Amino acid sequence: MIHVLAFITAKPGLRAQVIDAFQANVPAVLAEDGCIEYAATVDAAGMPPSRGSVGDDSFVVIERWASVAALQAHAASPHMAAYGAKVKDWTVSRTIHVLEAV
Questions:
Q1: How far is C-alpha 43 from the chain's CA centre?
Q2: CATH number of 2-100
Q3: For a tag site, which of 63, 71, 75, 80 has the least CB within 10 Å?
Q4: What's the CA gap between 66 and 36, in Å, rounded?
Q5: What pTM was computed for the model?
Q6: Quick one: angle between helices 15-30 and 78-87, nearest 10?
Q7: Residue 41: count of CB within 10 angstroms of its CB
Q8: How confident is the model over 44-76, as pLDDT tens digits?
Q9: Which H or E run includes 81?
Q10: pLDDT exceeding 90 applies to what percent of the chain?
Q11: Could you tell me if 7 and 43 are in contact, meaning their C-beta atoms sit under 8 angstroms apart?
């Protein structure tokens, strides 16, 4: 199994807009072969900010895939290309960590 943490930072004030576009794409991603989990997460409410906080303009996508091949097919899918084009001008950065269990 492959785990992915994607840290996405939106331009100031645009995080909700990027998350809305992300959520609209979730059903297509969950329907992909090999997708086990695909969800957007933000800092937990009520927790004080810390060095580990993602902040008001960022969110983290938590993904689990059955295999590297499934993740690669996801990255090449038309709906991900469309999502990327839609949010391109709304985001500052995207850092993706692809991990596997030890």
A1: 14
A2: 3.30.70.100
A3: 75
A4: 7
A5: 0.93
A6: 180
A7: 11
A8: 998 888 988 999 999 999 999 999 999 999 999
A9: helix 78-87
A10: 93
A11: no
Pairwise CA distance, residues 62 & 10, whole Å: 17
The helix (H) or strand (E) run that includes residue 7 is: strand 2-10
Residues in the chain: 102
Count of Cβ atoms closer than 10 Å to residue 93 Cβ: 9
* Residue 70: CB atoms within 10 Å: 18
Which of 102, 90, 93, 69 is closest to 6 using CA atoms?
93
Comparing C-alpha atoms, which of 65, 76, 60, 75 is closest to residue 6? Answer: 60
SS3 labels along 15-76: HHHHHHHHHHHHHHHHCCCCEEEEEEECCCCCCCCCCCCCCCCEEEEEEEECCHHHHHHHHC
Is residue 42 within 8 Å of 54, Cβ to Cβ?
yes
Q: Give CA angle at 101 (97, 102), nearest 5°.
A: 120
Q: Give the domain ranges of the chain.
A: 2-100
